[in-house]
Amino acid sequence: MSNSLLEAVFAEVKEPCSLPMLSVDMENKENGSVGVKNSMESGRPPDPADWAVMDVVNYFRTVGFEEQASAFQEQEIDGKSLLLMTRNDVLTGLQLKLGPALKIYEYHVKPLQTKHLKNNSS
User: Fold this and answer.
1) Per the database record, which ranges form the SAM domain (predicted)?
2) CATH of segment(s) 48-120
3) pLDDT per 10-residue tile (average), the chain, 122 residues
């Protein structure tokens, strides 16, 4: 690759990218954020603790993790199990690729756990 081509490529990169998924939007259902607002419309109970295994699987399919959703079914992860999962469980126990596993935990499992705790701590 010539130096001028490399310079042109690097000239396009002015600053590191800021990832839009770093902030959790509890109502945005894009891959990387939590789709909680439409829980009743999807047929899932609003409280993840009440989700059956297929509710968990369908949740992850809905938010863009079609490939990874089957791991939750294979491991029989229902809502109560999902809320008990640690970061390590998601990263190693489900045998997922690291990138999707990190997103699943940080942008879905962890926020669902936090929301559940807030709703049930009163």
Assistant:
1) 51-99
2) 1.10.150.50
3) 49 39 38 48 84 97 97 98 98 97 98 94 76
